[in-house]
Amino acid sequence: MKDPGTEACPYANICEQCDNFVTTTEFIPELQAQLADITALRDDATERGWDTEVARHARVIASINNHLNRLAHRTATDATK
Fold first, then answer.
1. pLDDT tens digits for 24-67?
2. How far apart are CA 19 and CA 13, in angstroms?
3. Looking at residue 7, what DSSP letter applies?
4. Could you tell me the pTM of the whole model?
5. What share of the chain is helix, strand, coil (3-state, %, to 5)?
6. In Å, how far from its chain's centre is CA 49?
7. Separation of alpha carbons 1 and 59, rounded Å
8. Contact, 71 vs 24, CB < 8 A?
């Protein structure tokens, strides 16, 4: 549990936000599950007034959505071949 007086950990979910993170379509279900979890965490942080946590979760949500969008595009492109 996070001490209410501390800021968000700068290393949490670091991999998903790294420019070198690579994933494949086989991991779409895991990414979708992670997106659901991180969205719930963001909503909880919002209710608690943990602004830095809200911002961190929002960055991870955006990153996971970007990965999912790229994978969806890749899947659609592969289907037309």
1. 999 999 999 999 999 999 999 999 999 999 999 999 999 999 99
2. 13
3. P
4. 0.78
5. 70, 0, 30
6. 20
7. 20
8. yes
Domain chopping of the chain, boundaries: 25-79
Q: Number of H helices and number of E strands within the chain?
A: 3, 0
| CB contact set of 28 (below 8 Å; sequence gap of 6+) | 68, 71
Q: Which residues contact 12 (CB under 8 A, 6 or more apart)?
A: 56
Reading the block at residue 62, the tokens are: 């955006």
pLDDT at 78: 72
E-assigned strand segments in the chain: none
Closest alpha carbon to 55 in 66, 67, 41: 41
The pLDDT of residue 81 is above 90: no
